[in-house]
Amino acid sequence: MKKTIGIIGGMGPLATADLFRKIVLMTDAASDNDHIRIFIDDNTAIPDRTLAILSGGADPVEAMADSIRKLEQCGADCLIMPCNTAHYFLPRLRPLTGIPFLSMLEATAKACAAAFPGKTAGVLATRGTLSSGVYERALQSEGVDYLLPEEEDRDRLMQVIYKGVKKGAPIESVRGPMEEVLNHMSGADYFILGCTELPIAAEGLALPQRFVDPTAELAKAAIRFCGYQVKDPVQ
């Protein structure tokens, strides 16, 4: 029997929509009835994850737990979160439910190891994600070499994420800081778009670098978990 997906969304809303879109585009389906049943709780009340990690902001776990309970009631067979930084809290979330939690970071690290063996990844992410070390641990577990951005480039990434995509600003307004970060990390062979707003920015800016998109990798993992086939999305 085919399984269903529960998405803990709202972190942010556009990233949630992007994950849903990628699941639909990458599911091998010939009709509406061939697609996966998906439950989404677009819980925009979840406190900011980076603020919680870096500066003692409100703990997001209880709000995430509320989403888990709602998705359990819907009948979700697996849970996914379109927020890289939120995976810092995954060890506290998994014990709250018997439903399998699929990790965006684990899926991304496996994809990097398979697609770019022996190459170095540049990790682009929020300050919360970079400070927590969650990506480093995931990549190390798969033997993936990586580079992290310098302090000034971390500020530029936060500008792209928060003042660009999350704010709904014109995408061209973040071209400058995004390109500066990529140019400064010249030692990387490819880049991990390790915040779910960054694939949206990279696509909108039509950047030429090689990227691994964690949102797409999570979508593929969820599709396979549910017993469906993955296809390449039509561009």
From TrEMBL:
<dbReference type="Pfam" id="PF01177">
    <property type="entry name" value="Asp_Glu_race"/>
</dbReference>
<dbReference type="InterPro" id="IPR001920">
    <property type="entry name" value="Asp/Glu_race"/>
</dbReference>
<dbReference type="InterPro" id="IPR004380">
    <property type="entry name" value="Asp_race"/>
</dbReference>
<protein>
    <submittedName>
        <fullName>Aspartate/glutamate racemase family protein</fullName>
    </submittedName>
</protein>
<keyword id="KW-0413">Isomerase</keyword>
<dbReference type="InterPro" id="IPR015942">
    <property type="entry name" value="Asp/Glu/hydantoin_racemase"/>
</dbReference>
<dbReference type="InterPro" id="IPR018187">
    <property type="entry name" value="Asp/Glu_racemase_AS_1"/>
</dbReference>
<comment type="similarity">
    <text>Belongs to the aspartate/glutamate racemases family.</text>
</comment>
<dbReference type="GO" id="GO:0047661">
    <property type="term" value="F:amino-acid racemase activity"/>
</dbReference>
